[in-house]
Amino acid sequence: MNTNWKLLAAVGLLAACNGDKEEESENQFDTYDSGDIVDTNDPTTNEDCEVVVSSITPESGTTGVYYRTTMEVSFDEDASSLSPTITLADPAGTEVGVGVAFDDTGFKATVTPTTPLEALTEYTLTVDICESTSAVAFTTSEYGGSLGVDPSALAGTTYHFSLGDAEYTQPEGLGALLSSFLDAPLLIGVGEVSGTTINVLGTQGMDDGGIVPDPSFDVWDFGPATLEGAYFQSSPTDIELEYGCATIPIYDFALSGTFAADASSIGGGSALGLGDSRHMGCLAGLGTDPDAICNYAATFGFACEECPDGNPWCLTIEAWFEPAPLLPGVSLEVAAD
Hints:
This protein has 337 residues and is mainly β. The radius of gyration is 32 Å and the shape is flat. The protein contains three helices and 20 strands. It has helices spanning 2-30, 175-181, 292-298, and strands at 53-57, 71-75, 85-89, 95-96, 98-102, 108-113, 122-129, 132-139, 158-162, 167-170, 185-194, 197-207, 211-213, 220-226, 231-233, 237-243, 246-259, 265-276, 314-320, 324-325.
């Protein structure tokens, strides 16, 4: 009897323990609600997704936007891993293909149309992220339509590109410094024309009661460029600018832009080249040390790069110009050898 009593007591104790574990297990399970489970692979269902758009460029209501423009979307946090939906549509609601590239911080995305936009057309850029939608509407400028004159009419024309009024997007942070001393007129002209091929010329200009070529400079020959409608892009060419105390070689300088339909101006003009900064210090009040500009650039977090001649003082320079007006009666011609 004593042995049976002990056996029954042990069985009862085991049952009690199992009951406690079962109750504990049920209580643990009850602390989770299936409605609280978040699919972290789908940011649109993530209740913690709170990233918002802080700005879009161009702003809503902007007119005169160049038809080959890129757009920028800035976020208040790193949004690169959230795959926001970014679309661009014309007035009929037809979407235009775009490419989206984030910068290293993930805070800013550059949006590039895969094909040029139409001139004088309103477009809507829409950004969807974290179940929030932001949209802006902007209108393109007159540039981007067909050339309304025969290409042969471009022969002998010359246009004034204002370096002092240009927007310098590279080197980032040095735009104000560059525009403070790169202020001499840049003249871009058309030489011979054959069909839709134009010969692009250029030189440094001067203000002599009107903008004219500076006779102390040679005319640069950028070679032939093919018109795409009214758009052209020159071949990269080495040029040399001169400003007071400094001579500035620019390697692989290339220029692009779009003629107005009546050829009265060039819009969306941009220039890209590798500028040798070794003599620029005196222009910026930084002395004659060839490292002066590079040291200054380092305060903005980027470094100079090697020039084609092996020296370490070059910076990529990219400038965007205001519409360049036609200079009536001014023509460029390459000097005979």
